[in-house]
Amino acid sequence: MVLSKKLDMKLNRSALIVAALFAAVQAVSAADIVGKITLKGVPPVEKELPLDANCGKLHPAGKPKTRFFVSDGNGGLADTFVYIKDGLTGKTFEVPAEAKVIDQKGCEYAPYVSGLQTKQKLSVKNSDDLLHNVHATPIVAGNKESNQAQLPKSKDLVYSYDNQEILMRFKCDVHPWMFAYVGVVDHPYYSVSAKDGTFKISNVPAGEYTIEAFHRKGGKLTQKVAAGATANFTFEVKETP
Ligand SMILES: [Cu+2]
Predict the structure, then answer these.
(1) Domain 31-236, what fold?
(2) CA 121 to ligand 1 center in whole angstroms
(3) What is the CA(129)–ligand 1 centre distance, in A?
(4) Element (H or E) spanning 7, and its range?
(5) What span, in angstroms and rounded, lies between the C-alpha atoms of 28 and 232?
(6) What is the pLDDT of residue 149?
(7) pTM score, whole prediction
(8) How far is ligand 1, taken at its centre, from the CA of residue 177, in Å?
(9) Domain boundaries, the chain
(10) Does 36 score more than 50 pLDDT?
(11) How many CB atoms lie within 10 A of CB 103?
(12) d(CA 208, CA 97)
């Protein structure tokens, strides 16, 4: 008993050493790219979504608004898809086994903007007690358009795409205000900015890259950055009439 406990401890210790060594190697060869997306100027006022009666009932406190420029009110800009655009040519990446998930809840898609690797599964859920109709509308050749009704509590609809597409749109043909946007890239090095504008692309292999920040209404910006460095972007909205 004592002997086996000792052996256990020894094994545990070597496992820890191996884990620590592995982490150290990773730290040397890969690093995060972090940054902040800032919005300059005053964006147009978001409008209430034109919910029908059934969807309206799901929002007794008031109708949700459009999400064109979601911000923390302090300059941070959310929903910007940031990804490595150049610098990974010739490399291939394992497809994550885990599916990404988009939910339909309260007659809105959540998340509004997300990312997906090519060939990775994307599960679209229906958490509402209502019929939705998921309509994927890719425009890049080879990515297949699909249009499927999804009954309440029915199983998830599962998609996957072979080609990069930034950003691919999903809509609902029952509720014309419902949209989701998915950045499909052929590697795992992407991020979506949070409400305070921050983003993090994790575990980027050592090297120099061009990264692009793509905001659906703000446009796109690129800059060169090394793994481990910071990349900040500023989108400017012009005054609207
Ligand atoms: Cu719907």
Answers:
(1) Immunoglobulin-like (2.60.40)
(2) 21
(3) 11
(4) helix 2-29
(5) 23
(6) 97
(7) 0.87
(8) 8
(9) 31-236
(10) yes
(11) 17
(12) 28
